[in-house]
Amino acid sequence: MDKDLLRIVIIAVGAVVILGMIIWGMFSDGSKRKKINFYDNHDPLENIDPSLVVSTEDDDFDIVPISTGENNEPQVTTRLNTEYIQEVQQTDVTASEHHAVAAKPATKQPLPSLLQLSIVAKSAPGFSGIQLLDALEDVGLVYGSVQVFEKLDDLNQVDYAVASMAEPGTFPEDGWENYVCPGITFFLQPREVEDAAQVFDEMIVTIGELSAVLKGDVLDQNQQGLTEDTLQKIKVSLG
Does the CA dihedral 223-229-233-239 come out positive or negative? Predict the structure, then answer.
């Protein structure tokens, strides 16, 4: 066979084969496209394997879109971390408040500089000298160097003093049989004693005993009858 003719035959056969492959490919591709039609009314996901679908029914996370506001700060909120953050924040606030209260020192009010209570006679001319002297000594009061009676502690320090309501406020060294006074006044300096509340309680006991013996009335520092309310206020002021 002529070489030129053979070459033409081979080229012709190759062209037919190539053309056949192209036609077969076109028909095959068209068939596949018919199987996947994105323009019909069927759900394109209906043929997806169910095992590949992620269920969100039991998922504890709510995913929300990232904020695109002016701050441009991404925020992702979930039920879990929101509750946790709120609980932590509340705990921190409570702890901070508790720490602030604990750290803040209590403001202690200063003790009063002087407390004054009196026993006055119910009638004139007042308490007689001998009766008064015996009553004062019976309750453990000691006549002092400044001519008033004093209540001394175990270290011989003065807890409180008792003065006369008659001018000049002192008691005589002798001549008690001729002495009379309208009443006596108790003086306590809370800032000068170690335990002001305890000393005040002891003074109240002494005043009660003397008022019963002398048959006198107990007055507060305003020369008014001492009431339970006034007494409690004084105790509060002593802490």
Answer: positive
CATH number, domain with residue 221: 3.30.1400.10
The gap from C-alpha 206 to its chain's centroid, in whole angstroms, comes to 42
Give the span between the Cα atoms of 60 and 152, in whole angstroms. Answer: 78
The answer to whether residues 185 and 163 touch, using CB atoms and an 8 Å cutoff, is: yes
Distance CA 161, CA 155 (A): 16
Q: Which two tokens stand for residue 70?
A: 């002016």
- Find the radius of gyration of the CA atoms of the chain: 54
- Name the stretches of the chain with pLDDT < 50: 31-40, 44-45, 48, 52, 54, 59, 61-69, 72-80, 84, 88, 101-103
196 located within any domain:
yes
Between CA 193 and CA 158 the distance in angstroms is 8
Tally of domains in the chain: 1
- Which pTM does this prediction carry? 0.56
CA 13, distance to chain mean position in Å, is 100
Report DSSP state, residue 140: T
Q: Decide if 183 is inside a domain.
A: yes
Prior bond of 168 cis (ω within 30°):
yes
